[in-house]
Amino acid sequence: MTSPGATLRAIRERKPLVHNITNYVVMNETANAILALGALPVMAHAREEVEQMVGLASALVLNIGTLSPQWIEAMLAAGAAAEIPIVLDPVGAGATEFRTETAHRILDTVNVTVLRGNPGEVATLVGAHAEVRGVESITAGLDPAELARTAAQRLGVVASVTGPVDHVSDGERVLAVANGHQLLATVTGTGCMSSALTGCFLAAKSDAPLEAAAEALAAFGVAAEDAASGAGGPGTFHARLYDALYALDPATLGERVRITEL
Amino acid sequence: MTSPGATLRAIRERKPLVHNITNYVVMNETANAILALGALPVMAHAREEVEQMVGLASALVLNIGTLSPQWIEAMLAAGAAAEIPIVLDPVGAGATEFRTETAHRILDTVNVTVLRGNPGEVATLVGAHAEVRGVESITAGLDPAELARTAAQRLGVVASVTGPVDHVSDGERVLAVANGHQLLATVTGTGCMSSALTGCFLAAKSDAPLEAAAEALAAFGVAAEDAASGAGGPGTFHARLYDALYALDPATLGERVRITEL
Amino acid sequence: MTSPGATLRAIRERKPLVHNITNYVVMNETANAILALGALPVMAHAREEVEQMVGLASALVLNIGTLSPQWIEAMLAAGAAAEIPIVLDPVGAGATEFRTETAHRILDTVNVTVLRGNPGEVATLVGAHAEVRGVESITAGLDPAELARTAAQRLGVVASVTGPVDHVSDGERVLAVANGHQLLATVTGTGCMSSALTGCFLAAKSDAPLEAAAEALAAFGVAAEDAASGAGGPGTFHARLYDALYALDPATLGERVRITEL
């Protein structure tokens, strides 16, 4: 059962350290989202330190948005060493073979807890038809709820497929999350932020990754709704998004989330 | 003939993918500028994927702001594979030999469509006297209109020289762009943003690179004028700049641009 | 004697170039803080150019927030070539051996002028007990004033230990700086910004590094106080922080700083 307010309260009390090996584009923004929510971010990618750093952390977030071979090695090493929940964000899988293969390599060798991607990326990884343009998903061959369920079953993960409505599945159950705002699509890295926040929720609720993943997306969506109110466009929305994450109220979050089981 | 409103409308309809191999400082900001304008950004620098990624794109933007040898190889490989318009931003050319030589190497081996730089950088590349301090242009030995024309002729590009008034030349004609705001100089990466937006305009108007480059600078300048109105300083101006790019109106853009042929 | 208004005026008149070899997370933000204050930032990390770039600069800022071996080599090379004040920000020292060893390696081989860190990082480097979680300092075994004095003596630097109250020492004198705002802790990279601004103040006051370091923290703290007034949370505070740095008034800064000698 989802209890986003309680999970958020736990995050703010425990301040879990979330280790990110992520892309250059969103490092600052995902760190700020994690901080604004109430957890502690750390970015570390050196092969020399990732195992030790992940040993201090409560969740690991791997994001392939700007790849290079050394970073892949670091992701695999951190993933192998991690005894904590792991989120994989397969940014741009389907756009290039290098990204698709890297996402598969991580899924094959790392114990990924939650795969958080857009429909095109996730469809690519289950072998369904998808059209991906750069890092944007254009179309996916499957209904998103079905896609989430199929991905969870085939890849052995909780699949978290984001879109106008998000769908999260453990292979049996499917939770739909209807929070969010269209301005999210006008700011780069909001998908990456949702993966980072998924790491925070998993850190505080590691025994229920399906629920934790859905709660993370719902909380982020509620914050986006708050940020959009009064925003003048993508730039002021972006600044207000951190304000809204910081202001999320555990006492009312449960009433505001729109999570339904399909 | 310039028709910035029509070009902007085309960008928003076609949503061209713009592939950036750019510096670490401005990755997020240039991606957000491209998104706010209405195109799709992708950042990818791995030698293993740049050729495939550039094959999906409608423009390529190369920016040498934070160089290393692997990135130069990726830029050259992407540039060689690209059959699309290419923008080069020679950040810091003139400050170090490494940057000057790299800019020349790209110009010599890649089919650069538009060179977008500040007067010091462009003057360095044509062998004129210039004083560059870090990535800031202090003085250039030539009048900017003459500098743009000379650079275009000698380097075989459309030269886009930005400053209080921008000058864009194909070696024969020179267009001056008088839009913009002094707050642009207080935010890092606004030059890089103008290069990224030049890529967007080229993607939608590849048959007229002189006009596309001037329209890009004019549109960015109009957005800066809008963003400055009500800004409290560099930080709120920066946030409002994305709002203003997003709000640019194709119907009125033509009346607001101040492009004159010299 | 501290004279922050005069130093700020000198920064804005001379516009010193500050060379940063820093982490990916804060490159944009520290560059913008330097620009907003009135100096000129440059980011350059290639082994091929750091010596030439540092030769153009008036201060060098080394920050180990996202390390890799090549970057360490660049920091050491730039540090060896520099004949200007050098700031070291030992981000995450104490969290991993790689970071602790790298910070020591820089301190041992580079003529560091100011070490700017949080209590856990600085305590780690003097061998005192510290608890560091990722890049956050949880506890340090020493009183911060004593910690700053001890670090300065043992490491041969001006030690600048930031916290709710900052303590800066040259090993004999200790200056306490009481400016600042709690929202600084909700935005990533504000510690890194304080190191970058320390570089700016050192560039303009290289003969008095103790005072320059304290003035930098006080000026940043005053800006944070201004930014917090009217901010809706971390995101709008962050944007307003650049506005506030830009608006710092040399004529009144001296009255607003709260620097006391212990």
Low confidence ranges of chain A: none
Q: Sheet bearing the most strands of chain A, described?
A: 9 strands, mixed
**What structural class is derived from the secondary structure elements of chain A?**
alpha/beta
Helix tally of chain A?
A: 11
Whole-number mean pLDDT of chain A: 96
Helix content of chain A: 40-55%
> Order of strands across the widest beta sheet of chain A?
2-1-3-4-5-8-9-10-11
What is the H/E string of chain A?
HEHEHEHEHEHEEHEEEHHHHE
Name the beta content range of chain A: 15-25%
Shape of chain A: globular
First and last CA, distance of chain A: 14 Å
How does this model look, in words?
By secondary structure, the first copy, chain A, is an alpha/beta fold. The first copy, chain A, has eleven helices and eleven strands. In chain A, the strands form two sheets. A nine-stranded mixed beta sheet of chain A has the order 2-1-3-4-5-8-9-10-11, sandwiched between helices. Chain A has a two-stranded antiparallel ribbon with strand order 6-7. The mean pLDDT of chain A is 96. At the A-C interface, helix 2, strand 2, helix 3 and helix 10 of A face helix 5 and helix 10 of C.
